[in-house]
Design goal:
The complex is a heterodimer of chains A (about 500) and B (about 400). Chain A is α/β, with parallel strands linked by helices. Chain A contains 13 helices and 24 strands. Chain A has one domain. The radius of gyration of chain B is 21 Å and the shape is globular. Classes of the chains: A alpha/beta (about 500), B alpha/beta (about 400). Chain A: Belongs to the iron-sulfur cluster assembly SufBD family.
């Protein structure tokens, strides 16, 4: 029992979570007045110089939002959000529009350098074998997008969505809201009304995107909500891998983040979407931290298309997030790999939905939840097969690991089958690190801490393997950080 | 949801008397307690084994025994469930069974729900069984189905069957006791509604098992709220549901581990044909104190038609770290390989299918531990299978 006792003691002695991205950068910003009304929606739209259809689209969403109620079914508990006490738009003053790296405020570049995100194209060329194109979003605007030219040669469009509205209006108009309609849910509707920036990706038919695309979101300003919108379209036979990372300063107040991500995969296309979510989780007493209410959904629209979600969730005070796949095309495939780690007083309610509509569609769900401290970690998922989804298959495996006895792990799967030829399998387990495993490692000369790290890493290995290499390294480090002080 | 029917009036002496022939023939169930329209009818009931005391709910309430009344309104299910609240408001009567500590009976006590003929109506009952420490008892619930008599018109029979039953059984299982509960929710007709609640609290070292066979009858919901009160207790909840037509059967479980070292098993199987819908929503809750909990929950469904549906929601809610908990859910059609194998051995398709279905359901029935009851269940499964529409063209 020694190892167990030690673990318990460690959890008790957690002070403040080690959050190394918690710095605040004093960058002058241009903000909309506090609060939310039609004027603010028009203000944001005007700031982006949007066409009138988009302004109307936003206003329509806003009016609908007024009639909606905040969802309460998730297993999370947070103080009431005052939607009138937030800034819905904040942009660094020195960034009129991302042109090239030379135009970017050096202060901003410093922020990203501090976060370890490579924005200098040359540096990347010199140092690392694989290259990553980055779109950096700071509060409400995109400050820089790298490698645009090279991607352009391959025909790949990768730019801030606010720019795509002007440069590729036909694509944006066709696809925006086609997977997550403005009527979808409370937070998605709010996002539709006030979304500020995010990434837009279009991969033309038959093109394999020559490099990984990524977006780094940073919330900097106080009392600001971030409402980004990402739209990724993979045309017939194309492939793209997209990475998303997020951080925010340590603050005593909670900050709201309500994003929408829409993915569309046409015939034979594949989209791989990876997230390392590292928003500020709040301190050990649950003060501060990001409220993360995100709607992510992919539409496997064409036959043989594939969408794969991989997420490592370590941050946020509240996580409410269900990356999903609509398996519409015949033989399409959806995947969801998730590691959700909660510590302190974090509350995670996350999972996925796999909606099988087409014939011979397959999906795979691997979810690993690790709860430590006084956190609550919930997996909530839905697997459903439509009457016409002949031959649909799903395999779901969700495992939870509890570290300490003041945390909770919960599993809420919904499995709905309307077709006799479907094969749905769901399994879930909850356990703690077994004494046998621990004993074996200790006996081989590892310290208790190393042993726990090894076992935890083994526990989440299925998911880590799905991450692009650069991210896997980062994720492994993150796992060590967020369990620091809880692992005995 | 179908609309609520008017509540039935308490049966008169003549109506009870009219049911007597059903219970006086030599093959009638022994050790039986009969509720007529939710009201305890001692006239139709028979002798109980030694150490078992039975009274009507009404008389216990009049007597005002605080300990029994406290058990009748269990805290763990109070107000949380609208069906229980409705039952609490409208219950007419029921039985209170007290099993003395150490009492034993290998033959089951049969709790039979009978109805008087009449128009469509609803009935509500609430019963209590208190199993004393170290006692060992079986309780078998069933619905009494009257055979049609010559003097009854066809339409009269139809009305007779269009019933809504809302029964609630509360079980308190004492330390080291063994309580085996079975219920056959069979024999209803389309349009009927049955909502059965079972609330059980399990003492230290006790064993509580429950099995349900569900066939037929329009809409059925069976809900079990179970709580492990003392350490070292064990429980197995099982059920088989066979549905066709537009039948709908729902199993809702809340298994709460409130004490350490308890072991719980739940296994429910569904066979769904035609346009039937099966629902399984189970929840295992492990309180912070309930270390060393061993909990397993599994739901398995076989869909036999393109229009049948299964909805599964097996939930875990865990607040203790030193536990081993798991749940699983599967749904799908019959395995084509198994069917093929049996066909290569010379079995016609329909027979091969029936064999596999019988085996699927039989796994749970074989483990009942009461051979008489197991045989009754097996024959009900066979009867259900034999009523299956002949298969169409199969490849």
């Amino acid at each position: 029992m020694a190892a167990v006792q030690e673990t318990v003691d460690r959890v008790k002695s957690i002070d403040v979570a080690e959050y190394k991205y918690g710095f605040f950068s004093d960058i002058e910003s241009d903000k909309a007045p506090k609060g939310l009304n039609e004027e603010i929606v028009r203000f944001i739209s005007a700031k982006k110089n949007e066409p009138s259809w988009l302004t109307e689209w936003r206003l329509d969403a806003y009016r609908r939002w007024l009639t909606m109620q905040e969802p309460k079914w998730a297993r999370v508990d947070y103080p009431r959000i005052d939607y009138q006490d937030l800034y819905y738009y904040s942009a660094p003053k020195t960034a009129p529009g991302p042109k090239s790296l030379e135009d970017v405020d050096p202060e901003l570049l410093k922020v990203y350098a501090k976060l370890g995100i490579p924005l200098q194209e040359q540096e990347i060329l010199a140092g690392v074998e694989r290259r990553v194109a980055v779109d950096a979003v700071f509060d409400s605007v995109s400050v820089v997008t790298t490698f645009k030219e090279e991607l352009g040669k391959a025909g790949v469009i990768f730019c801030p969505i606010s720019e795509a509205v002007h440069s590729h209006p036909e694509l944006v108009r066709k696809y925006l809201g086609s997977v997550v309609p403005t009527t979808d849910n409370y937070f998605a509707t709010l996002n539709s009304a006030v979304f500020s920036d995010g990434s837009f990706v279009y991969v033309p038919p038959g093109v394999r995107c020559p490099m990984e695309l990524s977006t780094y979101f940073r919330i900097n300003e106080q009392n600001t909500g971030q409402f980004e919108r990402t739209l990724i379209i993979a045309d017939k036979g194309s492939y793209v891998s997209y990475l998303e990372g997020c951080t925010a300063p340590k603050r005593d107040e909670n900050q709201l983040h309500a994003a929408v991500v829409e993915l569309i995969a046409h015939d034979d296309a594949e989209i791989k979407y990876s997230t390392v979510q590292n928003w500020y989780p709040g301190d050990s007493e649950g003060k501060g931290g990001i409220f993360n209410f995100v709607t992510k959904r992919g539409d496997c629209h064409g036959a043989n298309s594939k969408i794969s979600w991989t997420q490592v969730e370590t941050g946020s005070a509240i996580t409410w997030k269900y990356p999903s796949c609509i398996l519409r095309g015949d033989n399409s495939r959806g995947e969801f790999y998730s590691i959700a780690i909660s510590n302190g007083r974090q509350q995670v309610d996350s999972g996925t939905k796999m909606i099988h509509l087409g014939k011979n569609t397959t999906s795979r769900v691997i979810s690993k939840g690790i709860a430590a401290g006084k956190s609550q970690n919930t997996y909530r998922g839905q697997i459903s097969a439509h009457r016409k989804a002949t031959g649909a298959r799903n395999f779901t495996n969700c495992d939870s690991l509890l570290i300490g006895n003041s945390c909770g792990a919960h599993t809420v799967p919904y499995i709905e089958s309307r077709n006799p030829s479907t094969q749905f399998e769901h399994e879930a387990t909850t356990s703690k690190i077994s004494e046998d495993q621990m004993f074996y490692c200790l006996q081989r000369g590892l310290s208790a801490e190393e042993a726990t790290a090894l076992i935890v890493n083994g526990f989440v290995r299925d998911v880590l393997q799905q991450l692009p290499m650069e991210f896997a390294v980062e994720a492994q480090k993150l796992i060590a950080i967020s369990l620091e002080g809880s692992v005995g | 949801m179908r609309s609520a029917l008017p509540m039935v009036e308490a049966p008169g002496a003549a109506e009870i008397e009219a049911l007597r022939p059903d219970f006086s023939h030599p093959g009638a169930l022994a050790q039986r307690l009969v509720l007529v329209d939710g009201v305890f009818a001692p006239e139709l009931s028979s002798a109980m084994p030694e150490g078992v005391r039975v009274r009507s709910l009404a008389s216990v309430l009049n007597e005002g025994r605080a300990d029994l009344i406290a058990l009748l309104a269990p805290a763990n299910a109070d107000g949380a469930d609208p069906i229980l609240s409705l039952n609490a408001a409208l219950m007419q009567d029921g039985v209170v069974i007290e099993v003395a500590p150490g009492a034993r009976s290998d033959d089951p006590i049969n709790l039979v729900y009978a109805s008087t003929p009449g128009g469509p109506s609803a009935r509500f009952s609430r019963s209590l069984i208190v199993v004393g420490a170290g006692a060992s008892i079986r309780l078998a619930e069933s619905l009494h189905v009257r055979a049609a008599r010559a003097d009854e018109t066809f339409s009269g029979l139809q009305n007779f069957n269009c019933l809504q039953n809302f029964n609630c059984l509360i079980a308190s299982v004492g330390e080291g006791a063994t309580f085996n509960h079975t219920t056959r929710m069979t024999g209803g007709e389309p349009g009927g509604v049955r909502v059965e609640s079972l609330i059980a609290s399990i003492g230290a070292g006790a064993q509580f098992d429950s099995f349900a066979l569900v066939t037929g009858a329009g809409l059925i919901r069976r809900q079990i709220f179970m709580r492990f009160q003392g350490p070292g207790a064990k429980s197995a909840l099982r059920g088989v549901s066979l549905l066709r037509g537009r039948e709908h059967a729902d199993t809702t479980l809340v298994v709460e581990h409130a004490a350490p070292d308890c072991s719980g098993r739940q296994l429910f199987k569904y066979i769904l044909d035609e346009e039937a819908t099966g629902v399984f929503q189970g929840k295992i809750v492990v309180d912070p104190l309930a270390q060393k909990t061993d909990a397993r929950m599994l739901s398995k469904a076989l869909l036999l038609s393109d229009t049948a549906a299964m909805n599964n929601k097996p939930e875990l809610e865990i607040f203790a770290d030193d536990v081993a908990c798991g749940h699983g859910a599967t749904s799908g059609g019959l395995d084509a390989d198994q069917l093929f194998y049996l066909q290569t051995r010379g079995l016609p398709f329909a027979q091969a299918e029936a064999l596999l279905l019988e085996a699927f359901a039989g796994e749970l029935i074989d483990g009942l531990g009461d051979e008489n009851l197991a045989e009754v269940c097996r024959s009900e499964v066979r009867a259900w299978l034999s009523r299956r529409a002949p298969p169409g063209v199969h490849s």
